[in-house]
Write a structure and sequence with these properties.
Order of helices and strands: EHEHEHEHEHEHH
Number of helices: 7
Shape: elongated
Largest sheet: 6 strands, parallel
Length: 205
C-alpha cells in the first residue's frame, strides 16, 4: 500500500488510452471514474465517442467498469446500461474497498487492474492504496474553466481598482466630513494615517 497521488501517466482525454497498450502491460480490468472522466456531469447518456472507445477496449480484451463515489445509482446505472458495462457504486474512494469489490467481481489481481480518473485525492490516491495502475485524464470541461480563470485574472486589476475607488469614495464622502464637522483632529489624523498605510502596503506587496 502506497500513500501517493502521482499518476503513472496523464492523458488529455480518455480517447488517447489504447486497449492494446493496456493489454501489453497485462491489464485486464480498467476501472473508470464517470464524472468529468468519461463525460461531463450534466451528460446523462454516453455519446458515440465513448461507445467506440469501449468497443475498442473489448476488442483488446480489456474490461471497462465504472467505479463511482456517487451515492445515487440512477445516472451511473443508466450510463452503464447504455454501454453494456457494469459498475461499482458508492465506492468511497480513496478507500481500497470499492477497488477490491470490483476486482473480485471480475476475478483479477491489482497487477491486472488500472484506474482512470480525474481527481488526485480520490482516484489517484485510491489507486495507489489499492495497488493498481494509476492513470489520470484532464477533466472534461477543464479548458473552459481555464479560459474563465484566465479572463478573471486579466480583469482582476480592474475589479480591484473599482473596489479601491469605492473605498476612497466612502472615505471622502462619509468619514472625513464627519470627523471634521465634530472638530476631532484625532479622527482626521486616523483616517489620513489609515489611508497612507493602505497605499504603502499596496505598493510594497
Amino acid at each position: 500500500m502506497r500513500f501517493s497521488m502521482r499518476p503513472q501517466r496523464v492523458y488529455d482525454g480518455y480517447e488517447q488510452i489504447r486497449g492494446e497498450e493496456l493489454a501489453r502491460r497485462g491489464i485486464r480490468l480498467l476501472l473508470c471514474d464517470l464524472d468529468y472522466t468519461l463525460a461531463p456531469k450534466s451528460q446523462r447518456e454516453p455519446d458515440e465517442t465513448v461507445r467506440q472507445w469501449i468497443d475498442s477496449m473489448r476488442r483488446a480484451g480489456v474490461e471497462v467498469m465504472i467505479l463511482s463515489n456517487n451515492r445515487s445509482p440512477a445516472r451511473v446505472e443508466r450510463f452503464c446500461r447504455d454501454l453494456g458495462i457494469t459498475y461499482e457504486g458508492h465506492a468511497q474512494k480513496p478507500s481500497a474497498k470499492g477497488f477490491r469489490r470490483a476486482m473480485a467481481r471480475v476475478g483479477v489481481t491489482p497487477e491486472e487492474t488500472a484506474m482512470l480518473g480525474d481527481k488526485l485525492l480520490t482516484d489517484m490516491l485510491g489507486a495507489h492504496i489499492a495497488g493498481v495502475l494509476p492513470l489520470m485524464v484532464e477533466p472534461l470541461g477543464g479548458l473552459l474553466a481555464l479560459a474563465v480563470a484566465g479572463w478573471v485574472s486579466a480583469a482582476l486589476p480592474w475589479l480591484m481598482s473599482a473596489a479601491a475607488g469605492c473605498m476612497v469614495c466612502v472615505t471622502a464622502q462619509e468619514m472625513i466630513p464627519e470627523a471634521v464637522e465634530q472638530d476631532e483632529p484625532a479622527g482626521v489624523i486616523s483616517v489620513v494615517l489609515g489611508f497612507a498605510l493602505m497605499m504603502a502596503l499596496d505598493i510594497a506587496l
